[in-house]
Amino acid sequence: MDNKDNVNPTIINPSDLPSRRRSAPTTKRVGLFDSLAPAYPSLAEPLSSPEASEASLSDDEEAEEIDEQEVYDLISTISDPEHPLSLGSLGVVKLEDIAILPPTSARSRISTVTVLVTPTTSACSLTTVIGLGVKVRLVNALPPRFRIDVRIKPGTSSTAGEVNKQLGDKERVAAAMENKSLVNVVNQMLATCE
Amino acid sequence: MSDVQLYLLEADATDKTECKRIATQTATRLENRNLKLIDFVTSLEPHINDKDNSRIRANTVSYLADVIAALPTKVLSVQERKLLCDFILGRLEGDLEGVGASARALIALENLGKWDKTTAQKVIRAFVDNTHPLRQFKLQTERYAVVQLIDLLLAKYRDALRELHDEDDTFMPTFISYWEGEKDPRNLMILFSLLQVPMTEWDIHSHAQDMFDSVFNYFPITFKPPPDDPYGITSQDLKNRLRDCIAANSEFAPYAFPQLLDKLDSTSMNTKRDVLQAIQACITSYEANTLNLYSVTLWDALKFEILNVQEEDLAKEALKTLALIAAKFSDYGEGPLNAYLRPVIKECNEHLEDAPTKQSEAAGRILRAVASSAPLAADKLSKGVLPMMFALYSGSESITKRRGLLEAFNELTSAHIDLIQRDPSAKCEALKAFADDALNAMIRALISAPKAEVSFRIVSLAGVAQLVSALGVLSDKQIEQAVDTVTNMVLHEKVQGHGDISASAIKALSNIAKSAPQAVRDRSIPAFMVELPDVPDVQSIPTTVLEAFAQLATERQIFETVVLRLKNKLRVARHQGASLEYQQALLYAILYAFTFGDPPLEDGVIRSAYYADYAEPLIADFVKASSTGLDLVAIDVVGRVANIVLRQQSIHFQSQIYQKDLEWLSSSAAGTNPAGPQRAQLTPFLLYYYAAIRPEVVEGHDIIRLLKAQANAALGDGPSDLPRMTTLRLLSLLINKFANPKAMQTILTETGLEVESLLGAVSQPHTVQVAFAVVKGLLIQGKAGALTTRYLDALLALLSTCDKTTARQFATLLSPDDILSKQNHCLVSGLYKQKIFNQAIPSITESVRTADPQQKPAYLIALSSLLRWLPYSVLEPALASLTPPLLQTLDLADPADQEVKAAALIIFESALMHDPGTLAEHTSSLVTRVLNSTAAWANAADVRAKALQCLALAPRQLKREAVVPYRRQVVKRLLACLDDKKRTVRLEAVKCRTAWLGLDEGVEDDE
User: Fold this and answer.
1) Which intervals carry biased composition (Low complexity) (chain A) (predicted)?
2) pLDDT of residue B722
3) Which residues of chain A neighbour B979 with C-beta distances below 8 Å?
């Protein structure tokens, strides 16, 4: 990676990145004084100490759907192959460029996740690798009822057409993942993911 | 045989004691005048000149050295010593055998009487001229003795040796080359030390390069001490001494800096670390006018370590180095400082133009480091950078850019804060000149920038707080402006979700309060009071305002104002009949202030006056209240406030308080005051109150009375679960703290708390709980050992017949209770966890194996309930026997057993981390059962998450070939977890699945 395309890219400050805690106004605010309220371990369940989680089998099954923020959290921590920075902080993946489309018909269970990737420069030679990294990460981390569609954001890369074709083609993605040096690069990118 | 012959026979033995004995024997004869020195020397003749056997010659010298070393002072006359000295030196001219022994002999001689100047010079000349180069002697011990001798000469005869050097210009080159090729760390340690004498004290101008090279050849030190090295020399010791040599003389600068900077390009991080440390040492000890010649060169090289960080610690060292240069020049003169700072300013300005980038961030770090070195440097940097910074700021509309610039500005402000802290009289004129611009820019950012620009607003907020902290930079009026802005944000900014920076704003305000308490008192606190009505609507209690207000108490200087205002507000609210919720919120605020705030101290403990000012009036409120109008939350909260204020006070103070309170305490405890609060309602207060009181304060019979009353309450049918739990905690506390361990059984019997009789009768759930509470108090106390053991056995015996609910009670024995702490004057044995482990765990594990299936769950539950509170180190030795029952625990299917399963999983997690070997034989069972614990239908969310965390460790911690067979199955079953309903579980599932998918790569790497 000696020939860096963009030596000094703009970096987004971590506090400006979208996060679940900041983006969604919480339904129930946790007050500062809540921890001060008198608490008694209940006798029915003496194992739960006063501060232990209130979760029990019955009341925790309120479903939390997979949403765009969750997809963002999965891929924003991938490292850029040429800068020691995350794709999120480089603005390569953005929350507003992620879309989850519900199943097209009532009989289908398949939802689609679309991710648009913005390369740091329009001539970035590693665009394909970044796209591949995002795709691999999502295929491994999302349940099989999601179809993963990773593309280059229109107008941001000079090679968008070619790259999109590669990323959209199952065979070619599979073939790419047979290439050992490519696999190593991708694994290195994904190593920083939680 | 003569002594010398005897010695020579023994000389080649490894054990030198016999040699020493013979030498001492000779020495004694010399001392007693049984042997004349001349005869002694003559007796050496045939051996010391033995032409055929060099070994014998060397050993004879060794004998001589040992004899001299064994002689007391005053045995030999001046002439005799001189004679011996000449004899030894004379030998060196013709025969180099036994050179080490010669050196030892000379050291011993010197020890018997100081040499004159000529002798010292003669000795060093004899060695440097005759034994040059030293490396010709292969034995380290021989060279070592020589190094020691010369070290001694340089330490004690500095003038003599310096004169030798001054008079003879050829001495130095020989002396330098004499040491060439030395490699032994022991010798080098002394060599590096002795060389510092000529390096720092002699005029070495014409030999500087040779001298420098002779030590720099060893740079960087790569020595690694062998394992079990008996000499204990570390590579750091060598590095330190070598560094002192390099930095010893300014004359080295022309050689040191270029060569060090050359090595800074090394690819080895350790070399770079050594280089930076050496440069720092040079900067500190070289003269400023020498350093002046290299300052810009150093800057040009060092800046790259900061602009392109390879390792964070290297960047930090480079920053420190840059600061050292500035500090050196600041005491020296403006010229060199200007010359040094000019390129620094230029570079920083260039990077600030592109802000925000990594480089502009680095520029900020450089500004911070160099400016905090000295006020003069800070002033010049500020003058050089600030005009540009604010021109860029006003010339750009980009918020991102402005944020980058303010970040750099804040670094400069921090540097000034450092300076002011070191010297409050430091002037900050250049910063002051831009303070108005900066403050206005940041206030504008806080007021009018879009709320979604979080980083920009946070930087501005921090900047405002920092400017206030830089004492003397802002005028009073500007400080008020800053305080008003931040106060306004805290009180009136209502942003939800992204853009909510209220937590930072509150923190900024408490920071401001530290530097400008008066302004906060005058302006913020009144503003807060306006927002806190006397009687708010039930719907609109200003909770956020109260929370923010309470947090101001974390600053000591305004603690008092905050709690006083809260107390008065509570008074008025009560008087005017405000809602109970509001009163409670105010009480919580007071409690928060006392718990997390920073109250002023008096003799190291919280001011005792607070008890009379805060606790007493609050207590009086509920003592007077009728039992119906009693607020149970208030009783609890007031109890905690009283506890915090009271518990550190002296016995004397506590006694006074206690005697005063005893009357209403005992009247309500006995239920004799029908108008006052009832016994059960007061229990939370009693718990915290008695926790605060020192054991010495309370009389034994008071405790017995109290225990009786509480025992009746706990054993009775009346109260619901919550007060009962408090009563049980109080029982544990009283027994632990106040009951005399020697009379424990009597006390327990008298108060109806004797455990065996509690369990003996038809045991109700209540009585079992009381029994556990009593044992808990005893167990933690650790004083009544035999009794505790007996009671514990009685509890364990329950397991053979009891239900699961009783089994779960075992968790209460060890579950942490912050009331039973040393701060509360409880007796906390250091070994109680070991005790219960040793007594209970083996018998339970045994019973799990033999118990009938129906009773087995009870044992498993009790086991996990105990283990979950034990530190891993305690249970580690028994891991092998614990693993099978813990695995069975994971099969428990009752929804009520989730906590038990979680406890078992946590233990497996630690075991996988620390002792994967022990679990290896259970791999199959472990993977299957943990995998089953991830299934959504039978497990709570936290159990599923914990199971996934546990499972994720397996591929990393267990042997590859042991886990690979499960890969396919695990990866497949985890697909279901990826679709778990709970987000936290999905997150763990992703991590876990990644870990197992990673197993595949291992195969490819091996090929």
Assistant:
1) 41-56
2) 62
3) 66, 143, 145
